Amino acid sequence: MNNSTHTKSDTFAVMKQGNVFKFLSNGEWRTSGSGKTMKEVTPYDNTEAYEFQSCSQQDIDEVFKAANRAQRGWAKTPLWKRAEYLRKAAVILRENKDEIATALVKEIAKNRKSAVSEVVRTADLIEYTAEEGTRLVGKLMTSDSFPGQKRDKLCLVHRVPLGVILCIPPFNYPVNLCASKVAPALITGNSVVIKTPSQGAVSALYLAASFHLAGVPAGVVNAVTGKGSEIGDFLTTHPLVNCISLTGGGTTGMSVCKKVGMIPLQMELGGKDAAIVLPDCDLDLAAKAIVSGAFSYSAQRCTAVKIVLAVEPIGDELVKKVVDGVKKLTVGHPEENADITAVINKSSADYIESLVFDARQKGASEVCPYKREGNLLWPTVFDHVREDMKIAWEEPFGPVLPIIRLKSAEEAVEFANRSTMGLQGCVFTNDIEKAIHISDELSTGTVQVNGQPARGPDHFPFQGFKDSGLGSQGVYFSLEAMTKIKSTVINLRQESFPMN
């Protein structure tokens, strides 16, 4: 091991006691007062990956109190200084991208190439947020701009932080989607409490450590670990929470919404993203985008293509091209940069398998056959899927793609809109006017034209309709979501001034 590698491996040594990772509270890496820890296993061979703290309610209460105290001073820190801390954190991420990527490979079976890309993309996101945050300026309003009013009032309008932001990232992007919450919160003067995912906890801790090592004041960035089933309600209903930014499953999100009361929420939940393929499209382009969109990271993405709505008469040709593309995908170990790796756990694999068996029993054509070894599922494609099959409506979050054949674009839009989810959708056509009309009709937060669904670039708005979420993400939109408008009105005395 050379010196530079050794130095980088020691960068985050303070996070651990032996081989057990600590949690971050008020600028210190601590062990839980519960005396308990949790262990993760790798999705691909079920060997132990990491061990970390199982935080108690008392631990969490202390974290929130520290975050609340620290936020007042942080909000008074000059904006340029806050931006400087963010840039330093981005540098630390890039310098240690290989170590952090290793955690992503072990914890969530993301292939190494994608894992490194996530870390670098996160550093880019943080730097962009630092720049965009310094441009979030207020405005001046005058009373006489409203009909019938005199010029006797000046209104200074500016944005102020909400307070303590609870950031809850998902397992599939525990670094990037955590940073998409933390960076906007920090640049706007909020403090944060990160609740790491149970699978992906160490990866998220690395992100928290990057801000800590960048010199962010104690208590401004905190990170707790533990089972959501044990501490989730205590976290989300804590009286010192001023905003919750959550990315996760629909059931979890809706449960939080019902319990938290009148605090701002930023929620990105599940999706049943439809790809509508029209007869006039470039079929090679559509098939390539569908294969990539449906199977990247084993389809464990909210923006994965979850269903194809093929408008006849192109069904046979489209299916052939999709099948040809799927056959080129590699299946195996994430360290070998396989396209398809193990899904996150046995429970997920079992659920996906139940959808496969239902479609198979009800007569769908299994044009890419299902195969399973532990949590590793081979990419599966079903043609001639019908409405009575669960796969037509439920989100598998795994490498299974249903194809439904329909007679018209109108029928495809109507079918897509019947889903209770509305995150993204896409349409493939060479008629731009038709694409715009379909986009107008689809009840989804984003419609991609001649491209697969995607969250990025990270400064684009990202939001869901219906059960897919609340509010918008994307750098600028998160800056707005994590601040509130405050106005100061200056009343001017009405006096006559002599004119010289």
From TrEMBL:
Its EC number is 1.2.1.9. Pfam families: Aldedh. It catalyses: D-glyceraldehyde 3-phosphate + NADP(+) + H2O = (2R)-3-phosphoglycerate + NADPH + 2 H(+). The active site is at 268. GO terms for molecular function: glyceraldehyde-3-phosphate dehydrogenase (NADP+) (non-phosphorylating) activity; lactaldehyde dehydrogenase (NAD+) activity. Coiled coil: none annotated. Keywords: NADP, Oxidoreductase. InterPro entries: Ald_DH/histidinol_DH (IPR016161), Ald_DH_C (IPR016163), Ald_DH_CS_GLU (IPR029510), Ald_DH_N (IPR016162), Aldehyde_DH_dom (IPR015590), ALDH-related_metabolic_enz (IPR051020). This is NADP-dependent glyceraldehyde-3-phosphate dehydrogenase.
